[in-house]
Each structure stands twice: as C-alpha cells, then as structure tokens.
Amino acid sequence: MNAPRSAIELHARSVLIPIDVQCGFDLPPWPPRNNPAMEANGLRVLDAWRRAGLPLIHVRHDSVMDGSTLAPRHPGNAHRPGFVPLDGEALVTKSVNAAFIGTDLDLRLRRLGVDTVVLFGISTDMCVSTTARVAANLGYRTIVVGDACACFDLEDADGTVIPANEIHRAHLATLRTEFAQVVDSDALIAALSHVTAGPSRRAPHQ
Known about the structure:
The chain is an alpha/beta fold and 206 residues long. The protein has five helices and eight strands. A four-stranded parallel β-sheet has the order 1-4-5-8, sandwiched between helices. Strands 2-3 form a two-stranded parallel sheet. Helix 3 links the parallel strand 4 and strand 5. The longest helix is centred in the N-terminal third of the chain and has 15 residues. The model has no long low-confidence stretch (mean pLDDT 94).
C-alpha cells in the first residue's frame, strides 16, 4: 500500500503510458464525461516527459465489438489532437481493458529495465484503473496522474445515474489505497524537472 502524500520519485527507469486518448469517446453512445481539463493536463505531462527524454509508450484501444466508436476502421479510433505518437515512439494496441493483456507491453518494459509506470488517459474507472492494478500486481511501482484522467456517467443496477465525478473520485481513492500513487499534473511535472535521463532510453518501436 502506498504511503499517503509520498514524494514523487522519477528516474531513467520510469515510463509514461498514455492510455486510450482517442476521439471515439466524444461520440454516441458514450454518456457525459467529467474533467474537461483532462486533455490540457495530459498534453502538459506529455510535453514535459518528452523534454525530460524518458521512455514513452502509447496505448490505443482497437475494439473488436460491433459498432464500437473505437474500432480500427472507425474514425473515432484515432488519437485526439496532440496525443498522436511521434516518429520513433512506441505504440501498443489492445482489445481489452488492461494494456498488459494480449500485448507485449510487459516484455517491452522488462527490456527497457523499467520499474515505474506513469499512467493517464481514458477512462479512470476502466482501462486506466485496470492497467494500474495489473501493473502493480506485476511488481511495477505505479503512478496515476489523476487530473489527466476522465470517465463517464454510469447507471447502477437500479437505473440511477452515478455522476462521472463521483466514479472518478472513488476509483482514484481505491487505486491510491492499494495499487498506485495518485498525483496531479503539476506535481508530476515539477518532479520531472529533477530527472536526468540515462542513455538510449527511447522505447523500442515495434
């Protein structure tokens, strides 16, 4: 269990993993979303991480569900503006919630010597949370940038709508208690200012 308000420790063996920052989440039938600042915060983190020269692996959801706005042939599968991988940056594609299942993400991280993963993206309660839990169970020190994540209103079993903000807060609280250090983008960017990247830390592009 992570200690509350612990210092953010980043180093050359830390990797940033933006998860499913894709256009399809803006389209029907996705319900209302929280945190309109998610994109701006995520872009700030992404820019600071690139300037620090640390490893970066993008994750994209390629849905196999009929009619999904995240299906590979759907325009919604595309990354949101500013989140498209740059030349030489690695991309892992998945078809389930956890970015480690059915992919080579764990192998890539082991080859890089990574011991810390930093996650943000969509959605807090689904693919970000599931990936964070699996990462922690695999032995990675896990950090979630909470204000660079977002999720959606959901109905409970009685048909009552639970607002996205409540779902977001509850899932970040659960992650913080057992699986990850939850931080905000300002704190993460400040921590990056003290990091010196080692040689040849670019994630392999395969």
